[in-house]
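Task: complex structure prediction.
Instruction: return structure tokens for all chains below.
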Amino acid sequence: MFDYETLKMLWWLLIGVLLIGFVITDGFDMGVGALIPVIGKTDDERRLMINSIAPHWDGNQVWLVTGAGAIFAAWPAVYATAFSGFYVAMMLTLFALFFRPVGFDYRSKIEDPRWRNSWDWGLFVGGVVPPVIFGVAFGNLLQGVPFILDDFLRSQYQGGFLDLLNPFALLVGVFSLSLFVLQGSTWLQMKTEGALRQRARLVSLICAPLAVILFALAGVWIANGIDGYVITSIGDLSGPANPLLKTAELQPGAWLANYDKYPLTMIAPAVGLLFPLLTWIASKYNRSGFAFFCSSVTQAGVLLTCAFSMFPFILPSSIDPNFSFTVWDAVSSEKTLNIMTIAAAIFLPIILLYTTWCYLKMFGRLGKEFMAKYKHSAY
Amino acid sequence: MDEIVDLSRFQFAMTAMYHFLFVPLTLGLAWILVIMESLYVMTKKEIYKDMTKFWGKLFGINFALGVTTGLTMEFQFGTNWAYYSHYVGDVFGAPLAIEGMMAFFLESTFVGLFFFGWDRLTKLQHLASTCLVALGSSMSALWILIANGWMQNPVGAEFNYETMRMEMTSFADLVFNPVAQVKFVHTVASGYVTGAMFVLAISSYYLLKGRDTAFAKRSFAIAAAFGTAGILSTIVLGDESGYEVGDVQKVKLAAIESEWETHPAPAAFTLIGLPNQEEQRTDYAIKIPYALGIIATRSIDEQVIGLKDLMAEHELRIRNGMVAYGLLQKLRSGDKSEQNIAAFEEVKVDLGYGLLLKKYAPDVVDASEEQIQMAVDDSIPGVAPMFWSFRVMVGAGMVMLFIFLFAFYQSARSRIGKNKLFHKICLYSLPLPWIAMEAGWFVAEYGRQPWAIAEILPTHMGVSSVSSDKVLFSIISIAAFYTVLLVIEMFLMFRFARLGPSSLKTGKYHFEQLENIQGQG
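Output:
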């Protein structure tokens, strides 16, 4: 169908699409989770927050599950090295995610306040920890990750968990959290009313400028303090996928090179800077639907900025740049990519269709009447 | 190295078996909900809506832990089996990714509408949502079992020395892998049995207590019919037809039967005995003539090969694998002459057998005779655990067959609720499907040892390069989380099962009626 080189590009894009789907959809429900103990003052308010995402969070989480599955299938080497290298971080993410399915379903089943408060903190952990760790992970990808490959292409990670928590990575972690919370708060603006909505609005008004500042700060840091990676020699781009067949090196400013080469890619960081401001304006003037839209576009802009900066690198090795995984050599075979492309071409549009239908069916604000009517059946 | 292998295996076994406490109930109960809601849509009787909602509540409590524990499964291929993921991701990853796109999205999106869409959807739309949840979960099982079937019988793929991994050669072979197909039917049908047993047992509890009998009788009848169909499919379309193909499947069959020697066809079935691995024989065996040959090969003139003969074959293949490994090293070091490539292509099917030696001789090619013998001994799983767990599974299955047939007979004669003893048996048989399935998975996965991917990648090669204290940390944490979650889940399950349909707060059922009467009195 497509030639191998095109397929490699295509799967870089498709994994990007899945991750953008994740940060937009699961982004808002994790953001809501993070806000439950913060702006939900009464049990009814907390239930309203939870019920605003109750019909959707599970479907949303599949963007993450499918994203990870697609990385496994399309970039097996990346999946293997990143998941085992970031072992402790991955486990912490997993444990935080444990709280969500059970928290949502079990919280409302018993009326005891201690029971419900405990689950609220569980949902808080499930909403805060994953965004921070994803941010920290991206912060480390940008700096390169200390791993080597042996003759059998077995990867060996040579850093420790605490090395991941360096200043730049922590900055990206906080930035990522601010984006998820912005996403959650604009969702709540759109789905709730009264005092709760006003509190959500206040959170958006704080998070939006914070996101711009942190984004700009990360950008300046990358331009001045973090060396990027470049490929110095590589064989046929349609050749067999083996990371050892190329050479690469560190180079100051390399993470900005793509913006010179392909000026259109500048749109991504521009969106990342501009749309939080639009989110702020929309929130200020109570245009909550538009605020949510702008916040969602922000998520996409930021993720694409990261992808454009690093292209074609996915997981650079800071020990020996030659081991780095790139779009060209960490991928699956042509046959596998072809088959998955067909599957994605069929199923992604169908997924988008029924997901949209589901959101439309559950459209509308939730308030006191909702809580009164569904006291026994809602979460 | 050995320590990390054992720890990783322990963690995988623990999390997979725990995950499978919840999956089968989701698979079966989802379709039972479809049946109940269809009856509601057709008859417009509220009681069927209440049934859908009540059993749906229990479905939700179970579903939450199914999702939670499923996440672990997806993470730990990468975290704990990194080399495995790299080595076979090209083949094994694809069904997982397709599962996400085709099935898991469907199930998870519509489950939200199932719980929260009652007043937002028309009756038919809601029924369609319930159907899609059930369909999604069964299709999910299909793709997962295609992936698992490939581990048992890896068709449609070959080793590529240039990328140092397995690569897909035929997607159709992967999907229509006979092992995957029978596994799918067998596993999904046993999930249906689980859902039916669950409803049958809890309905029996209400009937024994004499509460909400109209509700319980209807639920019982649906479960009896659905379960009868399920258990018949599970047994008739059983897994054993999948033991015909592939070497490792043959090893499993022989191990299940503790069949050390190849006997002339048709082989006898060892009903019970004491497998003795060291002496390579089965003590005190009681045999049924012809039965094994007929079950395993569906014929009376084909042989079931014994373990000793299989091990002799393995020895040849290990020696061949050493040659393959030597040639691969030449290719890796740059000697890519056509002669070398051709020679390697010839023997590369046995490369995996060569890798079995890596545990004892890291360079493989210089393995001593003694080391080769150790690898040969490793090439079959422990026979006694296989022998016994298979019998536990079949025994539990047979008991359930009688229960469902009798339950079906009772409902056909409108005698539900009359036979107290039988309802007691139904209630206390609740754990049977779980016992059968955990035993069955043990047979399938322990029986695959020493391989992660049959004949291709030994389990000990598949692990990540991580330290054992990290794995110990994750094992302890996961065990702690899972224990707490299981206690909470069981607590809620028991609470709501005891409460019954009164938990819907419609005012129509036992405990609320009781309150009304007491209120008036």
